[in-house]
Write a structure and sequence with these properties.
Elements (H helix, E strand, L loop, with lengths): L7 E6 L2 E6 L38 E2 L6 E2 L6 E3 L10 E3 L1 H23 L1 E7 L5 E8 L5 E5 L3 E5 L3 E8 L11 E3 L7 E3 L5 E8 L8 E7 L3 H23 L1
Antiparallel strand pairs: 1-2, 3-4, 5-6, 7-8, 7-15, 8-9, 9-10, 11-12, 11-14, 12-13, 14-15
Length: 244
């Protein structure tokens, strides 16, 4: 499925122009659906400052949350790549802060993930390991692992992710992060050590049985650590997208 071309199309919604995949099934797993706007008749007042709307004070909808505000409470236009908007769109103060923080992921961490890092990879409980380059696919839907062999992990089929730091082992309580993507378990963080590896559990295509994948930084450990830190941020966005 990763080889299917991802065509794009330009669509106009009430919120603005969006560049979306021609086939909705190939949306980025980081993407968010457009919210339903609160109907005009249900918001006679600003949902932030409670100012009453009239001919002078017009109502505006936040493109991220869909709620209704006056111009003062919904004046910022901020880029919203998670909804595929072409141009910055109007957002309330609360949503604009969230969107601005996410821009760092799209401007920095996403590029790191696409560039990849080198790891020693162990599949399942095998004693055999292989040095492989791991990177995020251009459509953000897969992790590509390339070495003497090649295989892919679809992000939507990852059930748990554990980022290891120097001096920790899989399963220890003081791991840097643990993020459950499918099972709705808790997200916790701790420690300031450099990330050194990752432990994944995922379900291969056509199987309901979870497979374990362990990756340990190889060669350029700084690049690998930056890649793991970016993957940590990506996991948070994935968790949020699935809970919307």
């Amino acid at each position: 499925m990763s080889s299917v071309p991802d065509g794009k199309k330009l669509v106009r919604s009430p919120s603005g122009l969006r560049m979306v995949p021609e086939n909705g099934a190939f949306n980025s797993p980081f993407s968010l659906d457009e919210p339903q706007w609160v109907p005009d008749k249900e918001c006679p007042r600003c949902m932030q400052c409670d100012t009453k709307f009239d001919f002078i004070r017009r109502k505006h909808h936040c493109r991220r949350c869909g709620r209704c505000f006056c111009d003062k409470c919904c004046s910022k236009k901020v880029a919203l790549p998670r909804m595929c908007f072409v141009d910055p769109v109007r957002q309330c103060a609360e949503c604009s802060l969230v969107s601005q923080k996410e821009l760092e992921f799209y401007d920095k961490q996403l590029k790191v993930l696409l560039g990849g890092g080198t790891f020693v990879v162990t599949l399942g409980t095998s004693d055999k390991s292989e040095t492989m380059t791991c990177r995020l696919s251009n459509n953000h839907r897969y992790l590509f692992l390339d070495g003497e062999s090649h295989f892919e992990v679809e992000l939507s089929r990852i059930s748990s992710m554990q980022i290891l730091t120097d001096g920790t082992s899989p399963g220890e309580e003081d791991v840097h992060t643990y993020t459950s993507l499918l099972d709705g378990l808790c997200v916790s963080e701790g420690g300031t050590s450099r990330a050194s590896g990752m432990l994944l559990h995922y379900k291969p295509m056509g199987s309901q049985d979870a497979q374990q994948l362990q990756m340990e930084a190889a060669e350029d450990k700084k690049v690998a650590s930056l890649w793991l830190a970016a993957m940590h941020k990506a996991a948070k966005l994935l968790h949020e997208a699935r809970d919307q």
